[in-house]
């Protein structure tokens, strides 16, 4: 039975002491049946929601929903050429044009309430996406879902060549629970029923407890209890990782070697695995000053990406250098000939020249727009996201070289997430999704399929960049039947991206994972990169089933 409690800060500390998080006190002796504490630096989680379709739900933000609900298959996004690992679907067969996929439901799987998992659950989940497009955040364009015994065939309006992971990583929900839900977009799902290896046993605004199932279809689990904890900031999280109060995290660690790895080099691991994603400054293209492409171009020329990598990310990630925004070398093969070898360079003279040509002037050192108004903007990220806070401070300093009054705002995480979605900002740092191709990176920034009016919550394209040409080129890219068409479409996308500056990439965004091996082994890493070591990804369920007690 799930118990909901509210713990004050001292109670939370006491709970940790009683449960004995694995690796406490940096002991080199593994604990038998030790729990794992999985951490984020997001501050208190104010409201419980286990809805897998709401990005800001507590289950998604902390990542624990991925231990309760499961995907159809697992695509290794740090090595996309790897074979897909079947999961809830025991067989996965794509049509030659990738406009349909046939899935065979795995036999012998039960929901955690004892009901059998069947192909009807897959059918129901994808019909729910079809009937409620707001849930289909990947815009799969589902046309039909056909059930035939233990198989389900899903049809799409276009090719899923670039979205195979988005289809297969969809979390499947039980029909017998969700068919009675009036509005699946707002359902809080407080008693989550899943096929996954763990069940939710306790929720608190600072700690969520999950307990291992003894009837999990994947076999016996090494870790009996998971605690998902949210610390106030990266510094507190780093301290917790270093002293063993936290065991696994997806978070930037400043001075990672001295602050974490070297505290216990035999067991502490920090792994940044490259993917096709970036940290980027989303700018509100619907409001001043970023509704002017000339100003966006000028700002893009004064951001120092090397400085961002060295200072904000403290050398822990590669510099984003290509003007296409693609990380290198993983993205080299996707860069169009026009931009091969063309890198971001800080060029204040070129930036001021663009502004002068566009009618901007200066009053003393202050930039004045063509209407005669002084230029200013605010950059916003949540408090506690130390690397991002440093990043926007560096960008604000860069803006001041143009005479722009740029300020830094650090609201609480919940307020920031809401403002990000509704477009109530001028500039924010955020990340893009990753995938097997550059499609996700560019789509998240430019695609009209994400476009929502200001005030309505958007899942991506937070800056409301409105380019039918970019939207068409992205659609042509993902639906192309041959490599030549795909390359031509991608070249168009990159041309728009470079010329119109819909957002400003500032750094690469590898999959980051920090963990220790004191109590458990079997983690992914450089020697065995079977999936990213990121506990917030749908693929983290594979890690939870691969862990074994350390000897």
Helical content stands at 25-40%
Uncertain spans: 1-30
Straight-line distance between termini = 33 Å
Multimeric state? single chain
The CATH superfamily of the largest domain is identified as Dipeptide-binding Protein, Domain 3
Specify the structural class.
Answer: alpha+beta
Into how many domains do the coordinates divide? Answer: 3
CATH class of the largest domain: Alpha Beta
The gyration radius over C-alpha positions equals 23 Å
Shape: globular
- Relative strand content: 15-25%
Summed over residues and divided by their number, the pLDDT gives a mean of: 91
Strands side by side in the biggest sheet: 1-9-10-11-2-12-21-13
What is the strand tally? 23
- How many separate helices? 16
CATH topology of the largest domain: Dipeptide-binding Protein, domain 3
Reported for the largest beta sheet, the result is:
8 strands, mixed
* CATH architecture group name of the largest domain: Roll
